[in-house]
Structure formats: C-alpha cells, structure tokens
Amino acid sequence: MLLRSAPRRLHLLRPHHHRLLSAAVLASAAPAPTAAPVPPQAPTEWAEAPVASVRPATADASLYHVSLDLSAHGGLLASHAAAGQFLPFRLPSASYLIFLAIASPPPAPGSSSPAAAFDFLVKRLPGTPSARLCDLRPGDLVHVGASVVGRGFDVARIADARDVLVFATGSGISPIRSLVESSFVEDHKAGINLFYGVRNLQRMAYQERFNDWETKGVKIIPVLSRPDSQWTGERGYVQNVFSRMKNIVNPSSVGAILCGHKQMTEEITRVLVADGLSKDRILTNF
C-alpha cells in the first residue's frame, strides 16, 4: 500500500533524538571526499542460478524486485556474511559485469535454516544489463559470482552507538533493507532514524515493509524532492531535511550509515564531520 501522506510521527525524530542530535551531526556512509571508492573484485569462479521471481518494486516500474533461487549453491549462500555486500552478474550480450547489492538480510549467527534465495532491488535503465535482468522470467538462468564480494557495512565500528542515523536515496535503499532486516536492529537496541529520499511516492520502494521496520524500532522519515500537492511530509533533498533537523549533543554516542547519490553522501559527510563526528563512525558498503 502506498503512502498518501506522511503521518506526523514520521516527520520528527523522537524527543530524545532531538536532545541527542545537536552539535555533532550523525554520519553518512560516504567515504571522505578525498577517498576514491574501491570497485569490487571480479570473481574468478561463476555459478548458474535460476530466476525465482521478477516484479515491479515501485508504482512507476522504475525499480524491480528480482529474486534468485540459490538452493543448489550452499557455499554462495553461506558467503553472505554482512548487510551491504554485492553479488556480481554476468548477463548475456552485456559488455561488462554488474554488481548488485543484496537486499535480503544475511543469515543470523547460528541460524539453522538460512534462506535459499537472494533478493535484489534493480534499477530498470533502458539499454543496460540491469534492464535485461528485469526483463527475465522465472526459470531463466543467469551467471553470478560463486561468492559474494565486498565487506558490507562494518557495524562493529558503531556497536556502542546510542543513536544511529541511516541515509538512503533511490535504489540505495536496497542494502539498507538488508541491514534493517538483519540482526543489527535487534542487537543494537539503539534509536535508529532512516532518512529515505526519492523523487515521489511512485518511485519509493519497500513501502509495504515500513510498518514492520517501525515495529522493530526504525523511525522512517520519507523525503520527496518532487511530490504531488497532497504530500504533507518532508520535501526537498535528504541532506537539506537532515540539516534542518539535526541536533547532536554527543557525537561519540552517534553512528551513521549512508548509501545513495554521491552528492547527498558527500554533503552529509561534510556536515557530520564539521559537527564533530569521527569519520570512523560513518559507514559505507564500499
């Protein structure tokens, strides 16, 4: 069910967050502006897996849910150890590999019944390999890396955080879903605020999961850059909305995770660092 407008409880941080978020901003997942992202390594071994399902993830079909059946690849499933990791794809007639962040959560430590599939949130850009992936049908076979790549979000670095700010834009919400639905929220027992920015509600994925995420303790602040006239929630860009709301008192008690547009990650990072947040407490998945 699509959001029609943002309930008032989504517009503001909880009272104790206003107290906490003051002189030292919460962090982003972007690297320092001078640090170049390290591209994932191409795999040396490949596996073949069938598509389990493909369906639109947003009302305008700009994003798709894609699920792969990996029940025959126990080692590949077991290699998924952290939210934010990627799986390489080698698609027919594509001149380059694509690396997609895994949207489903990694198995909980000690789990005896790990999931048999990986979920992805795929941007359907015409003429690209990702669009071809969205055009596949259940049962079609794809070549993927025999293990996942990337370090994911190193949440151990913010294990002591009392408050966590999470920032996502567009399809960057995919690895954030993996994080929110992993053991991180339950283990962390912290206040978690998720700023999620898209153009409009027709481009906002995972709305059907919002109630469950909030039940787990995640406060969601949807931010629309081009909403319709009925929208009563936050307008503009994530970095601007956050700059208005931030009120960090003790930066050493805050952690931040960020994934999305480069401009957003860089601007939020600059604000957070200027307010006293250590770069070590700003997490990215690359």
From TrEMBL:
Name of the protein this chain belongs to: FAD-binding FR-type domain-containing protein
PANTHER family cross-referenced by the UniProt entry: OS01G0120600 PROTEIN, PTHR47215
Residue span(s) of domain FAD-binding FR-type: 44-155
Gene3D superfamilies in the record: Nucleotide-binding domain of ferredoxin-NADP reductase (FNR) module
InterPro entries: FAD-bd_FR_type, FNR_nucleotide-bd, OxRdtase_FAD/NAD-bd, Riboflavin_synthase-like_b-brl
SUPFAM superfamilies named in the record: Ferredoxin reductase-like, C-terminal NADP-linked domain (SSF52343), Riboflavin synthase domain-like (SSF63380)
One Pfam family matching this protein: NAD_binding_1
Domain of life: Eukaryota
Alphabetized CDD domains for the sequence: FNR_like
